[in-house]
Amino acid sequence: MAPITDEQVETVRALVASIPAGRVSTYGDIAAAAGLSSPRIVAWIMRTDSSDLPWYRVITASGKPAPHLATRQLENLRAEGVLAKDGRVDLRVARHQF
DNA sequence: AAGTTGACCTCTC
DNA sequence: CGAGAGGCCAACT
């Protein structure tokens, strides 16, 4: 196995931190941008290594975050100006491109 | 030490 | 367009 280096995790954090307000990103994109082999690692990072970073700006490819957090995330995103339709964020406009 | 879990993504039926 | 299965990596029990 290839243990994830701090650099990878740090890159993920940097990417999330560099996401401007009113914009979101998907796990897959972050994982790819961080150079991770699998998007699951990004999800794992949020679960285990929760930081002060705005994880709520990170959503799934479906345009919706986790079920339990979805309500909170969408509310926060809506407050930042993200246009969410029926609980779904418009990735075509809100998706932050690196 | 092995098996299960976790906030996933993509392909196929 | 909706549902199901597979694959991926690491941490936790």
From TrEMBL:
InterPro entries: ATL_DNA_repair, MethylDNA_cys_MeTrfase_DNA-bd, MethylDNA_cys_MeTrfase_DNAb, WH-like_DNA-bd_sf. Keywords: DNA damage, Methyltransferase, Transferase. It comes from the Bacteria. SUPFAM superfamilies: Methylated DNA-protein cysteine methyltransferase, C-terminal domain. Residues 10-82 form the Methylated-DNA-[protein]-cysteine S-methyltransferase DNA binding domain. GO terms for molecular function: methyltransferase activity. One of its GO terms (biological process) is DNA repair. The keyword Transferase applies. This is DNA methyltransferase.
